[in-house]
UniProtKB/TrEMBL annotation:
InterPro entries with a match to the protein in the record: FSCA_dom_sf, Mrp-like_CS, Mrp/NBP35_ATP-bd, NUBPL-like, P-loop_NTPase, YlxH/NBP35
Described purpose of this protein according to its UniProt entry: Binds and transfers iron-sulfur (Fe-S) clusters to target apoproteins. Can hydrolyze ATP.
UniProt GO MF annotations: 4 iron, 4 sulfur cluster binding; ATP binding; ATP hydrolysis activity; ATP-dependent FeS chaperone activity; metal ion binding
Name this polypeptide is given: Iron-sulfur cluster carrier protein
The keyword Repeat belongs to this UniProt entry's keyword annotation: no
Alphabetical UniProt keywords: ATP-binding, Hydrolase, Iron, Iron-sulfur, Metal-binding, Nucleotide-binding
Family: Belongs to the Mrp/NBP35 ATP-binding proteins family.
Assembly, per entry: Homodimer.
Residues annotated as binding ATP: 120-127
Organism: Virgibacillus salinus
GO biological process: iron-sulfur cluster assembly
CDD domains for this protein: Mrp_NBP35
Matches recorded under Gene3D superfamilies: P-loop containing nucleotide triphosphate hydrolases
Length: 356
């Protein structure tokens, strides 16, 4: 044990390289060492530290780290107080911190653009939108992956006609590729379509694994098919992926739109940018007469976009994909299909928004 009494300068020198757990910057960069008081006779060092977020588990770990450093270098006792850094400091380092968090999550390298596809309730075609948006982005020359994060209601593998399971290579899960899109789903890890009876924390761990333990490679876009509503998984996504953008899916029915607004408000509260609204099942067009019938009502998507201060990116009618004998993919619309063309327009608008 070092016996000399630490000076204020030495304390600063020891603490400056320590990193703020939220801003991923050193305390020197953030000017986080606020006050130092030393009582020489008792070898007591008292320090006030400014960090990005207080009263968290990370603060406790930081506290242990700082106490350890100071005691190792001569302090007998250490007093620590934490305060939140000024807003302007947090704003200055926040974007870099968010990118750092996602980099850690995805294992470094180039980070994809994250798009979460959300809805207020089930049955509005959110997974269909995810799958076909991924297909359209791939047709635009992008490298695309899908995380089927709808852990209870996983349907992406079935929609895309995927029958194989992911391989494991060097302790990493290799996603299944179908039509040039990489896919990972809870459905791959469940036997015989059995029900999932998990609690929230277990679901969060599974979602984490979908990022950390999967060999995604160099993606341009990673789409997340979220469960409907604003439950645990949706909240985990908001926490794990600060820069994730969101697409809200609804039918034109006023109730569906009203419920979808909740998912949208959650995105806004957590500073996730809303890319727009996709109105699914907007109408049915009769092949015989060419007349449009508004089966689920009218105007829900437009109203929802107004509430969320965003735009309607597309209105998709009710229609099946073409049947193909050699390819089984019940929900994938072909490139030349009228709805395939609509998805192409939506994908083009999204690319323009994100990559402009």
């Amino acid at each position: 044990m070092v016996t000399n009494v630490l000076s204020q300068e030495e304390v600063k020198e020891l603490l400056h390289p320590v990193k703020d757990p939220f801003l991923h910057r050193t305390l020197e960069e953030t000017d986080g060492v606020k006050e130092i008081t030393i009582k020489e006779e008792k070898k007591h060092v008292s320090v006030k530290i400014g960090i990005g977020k207080t009263n968290t588990g990370e603060q406790m770990q930081l506290q242990q780290e700082i106490v350890g450093i100071l005691k190792k270098n001569g302090a007998t006792t250490v007093g620590l107080r934490f305060e939140q850094l000024p807003d302007e400091t947090i704003e200055k380092f926040q974007p870099a911190a968010e990118a750092e968090q996602e980099k850690t999550l995805m294992g470094g390298g180039k980070q994809p653009n994250f798009i979460a596809v959300a809805s207020g309730k089930g049955g509005v075609g959110k997974s269909t939108v995810t799958v076909n948006l991924a297909m359209s982005l791939m047709r635009l020359g992008k490298k695309v992956g899908i995380i089927d994060a709808d852990i209870y209601g996983f349907s992406v593998p079935d929609m895309m006609g995927i029958e194989e399971r992911p391989a494991v290579r060097a302790e990493k899960i290799i996603p299944v590729e179908r039509f040039g899109v990489q896919v990972i789903s809870m459905g791959f890890f469940v036997e015989d379509n059995s029900p999932i009876i998990w609690r929230g924390p277990m679901l969060g761990k599974m979602l984490n694994s979908f990022f950390k333990e999967v060999e995604w490679g160099d993606l341009d876009y990673l789409l997340l098919d979220l469960p409907p509503g604003t439950g645990d998984i949706a909240m985990d996504v908001h926490e794990l992926l600060p820069t994730c953008k969101e697409l809200i899916v609804s039918t034109p029915h006023p109730t569906a739109a009203f419920v979808a607004a909740r998912a949208g408000q959650m995105a806004l509260k957590t500073d996730h940018e809303i890319l727009g609204v996709v109105e699914n099942m907007a109408y049915f067009e009769s092949k015989k007469t060419g007349e449009k019938e508004y089966v689920f009502g009218k105007g829900g998507g437009k109203k929802l976009a107004e509430v969320l201060q965003t735009q309607v990116l597309g209105q998709l009618p009710l229609q099946q994909p073409y049947e193909e004998e050699d390819e089984f993919a019940p929900s994938v619309y072909q490139q030349d299909h009228p709805i395939g063309k609509e998805y192409h327009k939506i994908a083009s608008k999204i690319v323009a928004k994100i990559e402009e």
